[in-house]
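Me: I hope this is not a bother. Any chance you could explain this protein sequence and its structure tokens? It all follows right here:
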Amino acid sequence: MKESNKLLESLPADFFRQFKTGEEFTGFMDALFKRGVEELLEGELDGHLGYEKHSPSAGDNKRNGKKSKTIKTSRGSYRIEVPRDRGGSFAPQLVPKRKRMIDQIEDAVVSLYAKGMSTQDISRQVNELYGVSISSSTVSNITEKVLIDVAEWQNRALDSTYLVVWLDGLVFKVRQENRIINKSIYLIAGLNTTGHKEVLGLWINDQETASFWSKALTDLRVRGVQDILIACSDNLSGLTTAIKAIFPDTVTQLCLVHQIRNSLKKVPYKNRREVARDLRHIYEAPNEEAATQAFLGFELKWGKTYPYICSSWKNHWDNLVPFLQYPMEIRQLIYTTNMIENLNRNVRKFTKNKTMFPDDSAVIKAVYLSIQNVSRIWTNAIHNWPTIASQFLILYPNISNIIF
């Protein structure tokens, strides 16, 4: 900026007086911009070939004329001359080869859509950035290409073994047959044998049901998953049965946080802290035997006052206490569905501006793009992975593909 100011100050005082109209000055600026771009390209080619124009060649590769190219900027369209080399290896950075303005716009549209912006907002933003007017329907057409990526991602082959999977659903409002209804997006995330988290797939249905979870789990089986060691979920009725039907050897663990919330839901405030403390003795027990004794003590103390709490823990007991058979590091992974709930929060963050989706494909596009954003930060193995990997190898000696 300082150099530009110095250059302007060095111009003669009457330099700008030669322009009689605004159009003349604009024409001069356009020609100056075009000439500047072309000179910069010549400089790039000088650096690529190792010698300046009209100088002796420094190697076998030489200049080979020019080709015309139209570029679009916020100032408008320009026809420029791009220098070439005989070897065809020159790839200008200022004006990339085979990179059209529409490619940049499409990339920008998809990026803005992934961040939760509406089609109208994207139209305005593109106009401001590129000086190009596109309609909301054009934005939708551009993002439709995302569905091709979704299909490839949804049908990709999966690993044969996952140490832990987490299952949960999100509800979105979607227009269907002139009505706005709630639809559920099913999400399954897994911990693979290298210690990395990944989202295995997403599915959409009118509501979250155990039968549809069976279809989603069958899809995992078809895509190559042979074994899931531990599956963590909330206490949706029938979900545990659905998991066992597709993966009979899987240990099913219900989310203790959901169980505790449901237990305290109807407890008056005056007793809530004491009831929560007594429940803690159950899930913080060192083993299942101690947990059973803690529950019997809880039932003796609160059974008559809050019978529904006791009956709920009894009915789900076999799926609430499996985590107690594992070392502490694995317990922290499976006693709650916090991992996938964190994923859900990130999805909500990217979709919060969309109060209603026009159709199923719009929901799928938005959720898929938000998942891709989250996946970019899942590049490292989970915390304490070497210890957890060693524990899984001891507990499951037949799992030979765990990588430290």
Notes: Residues 159-395 form one domain.
